Amino acid sequence: MAEPVIAVENVTLSFQPETPPELEGVSFQIDEGEIVSLVGPSGCGKSTLLRLICGVLAPTEGVIKVCGKKAVPGWSGLGFVPQDSLLFPWRTVLANVRLPLEIKAGGELGEEELNRQARKALQLVNLNGVEDKYPRQLSGGMKQRAALARGLAADTRILLLDEPFAALDAITRTQLHLELLSVQSRTRNTVLLVTHDIFEAVFLSHRVVVMGENPGRILGEVTVDLGFSRNSKMMGTPEFSRLVGEVQDMLERGWGRDYG
Amino acid sequence: MDKKRILQIIRRNYEYFSLPLGLLLFLLIWKTAAGFYASFILPSPVEVGTRFQEFQRQGLLFRHFFVTFLEAFAGFCLAGVTALPLSYLLARNTFLEKIFTPYIVGLQAVPIVALAPLLVIWFGFGITSKVLIAALTAFFPILTNGVVGFRGTDRRFREMMAIMGAGRKTVFFKLEIPSALPVLFGGLKMGMTLSVIGAVVGEFAGAGRGLGYLVNTARGSFDTPLIFVALLALAVLGISFYLFVSLVEYLTMPWKRRG
User: Fold this and answer.
1) Could you tell me which residues are beta bridge partners of residue A79?
2) pTM greater than 0.80
């Protein structure tokens, strides 16, 4: 049995002792090459959980291991894609994608080599012809593609996505869903996706981890046995609907009330 | 038909016409107004022009212009190299900010006009005292804009940098500086024009050269056309400084350009 790539073990996070904790007793694992979604209502701490895995927050109790080691900020095998792209407005698209490479290389690689690697990442997400543009000149979908490219640029093994499609229109969103699947099938990255869109979660993932709020906790897991290759036609199948229903049921049980 | 065409051309290219047209109008009003007053109160544009030529021929104008330029520019640079690093420290360290802020505000609260004679006593009639006075005048807006600019770094960008593993130096050069630049330039533009004011105030307090000195001596001999010459030279100096900073701003922030 191979070691899980991400292991969250009984993690609790509380900012103040009096208030209920942000997260309580959270445990789950992700294996190499898996796509896992974290689904839950706003404020259930799913984004916080991502920050814990990134290492920019430390748990109050419990352990988080990334590739067998305690999570620390700046581990270079990890790519992060935030909701609103967070591209630096003063850098061109190419320079934004180059940034993690620059940081990783620490001045040891020439600009040409860095640009070459950044262009490779841009090609991977199918974003061409805009490398010299500034972020404000791009559409929302293009910005997210660029953010994805930045997340992939530095030899990424684990991709953490924090609601990256939430601000996009439905058509662009589906387009990017398929792009993400295509990228993952080529890179075989391990992907952890935070979302509040159940359809998105079921469509993209091998496994959906369902979270509840107050305090943030794990309600259960749904394994998505739709096979490895996905296409948008699957959304119409009864199997897809059954899985969505299963996740929905689990969320509702978390509310602690029966809406019949 | 022809008239329409001409009007249309003017309307489309009005930005090329507006400046010279406005200038012409201004000169016309000036000339008319000057007709009602004696020359030592309001000289006409022609008198000012003649005085300018005279003075220029003696080779004096450029010398005074250059002195004030030097004082203001050196003062501005001095203010920049002290205020910008200090503003970074104050923005990043609330403890230092609490210690320093009362003194900085206090220094700013004392009118520079009142401080100038003291500095002339301490540093003499030469250029040093003027550079210091110009620097003091320009210091405050550069500092306050610096603090605001450096404090405005987006927390989410910081987090992004931390996730990517950026160290302090990288965060400083690749995040904090570029994100503060637009606000920093606001302060630098203000400081640049204020440094001219500071230099002139310094020259008023006691000097043997410079455009401020020129205004002062011309006033003494009721040479009002010469005052106008000095004032115009000061305007040119201030505008050139402003354009210079704007040019640097344009060159350092390509992402702010249109298109």
Assistant:
1) A159
2) yes
3-state secondary structure of A34: coil
User: pLDDT tens across B100-124, in order?
Assistant: 889 888 888 889 999 999 999 999 9
Nearest to B166 among A55, A75, A103 (CB): A103
Cα separation, B194 vs A150, in Å, equals 43
Q: Same domain for B70 and B161?
A: yes
Express each pLDDT in A35-57 by its tens digit: 999 999 888 888 899 999 998 98
Using the Cβ of A78 and the Cβ atoms of chain B, whether some distance falls under 8 Å is answered with yes
Strand partners, A8: A28, A64
Residue of A nearest to B257 (CA): A134
Pair (B87, B25) in one structural domain: no
> Pick from A194, A187, A199: which is nearest to A125 by CA?
A187
- Tokens coding A109: 């690689």
- Interface touch B156/A82, C-beta < 8 Å: yes
Same domain, B188 and B113: yes
- Same domain assignment for residues B90 and B207: yes
B142 shares its domain with B188: yes
User: Domain check: are B93 and B6 in the same one?
Assistant: no
- Domain locations along chain A: 1-77+198-260
The domain spanning residue B96 has which CATH number?
Answer: 1.10.3720.10
How big is chain B, counted in residues? 259
> Which residues in A lie closer than 8 A to residue B170 (C-beta atoms)?
102-103
Whether B25 maps to a domain, the answer reads yes
- CA dist B34 and B41 (Å) reads 9
For A1-77+198-260, give the CATH class. Answer: alpha beta
**In a 10 Å sphere around its CB, with 0-12 CB exposed, 13-18 middle and 19+ buried, how is residue A105 labelled?**
middle
Give every CB contact of residue A86 below 8 A, 6+ residues apart in sequence. A147, B156, B157, B160
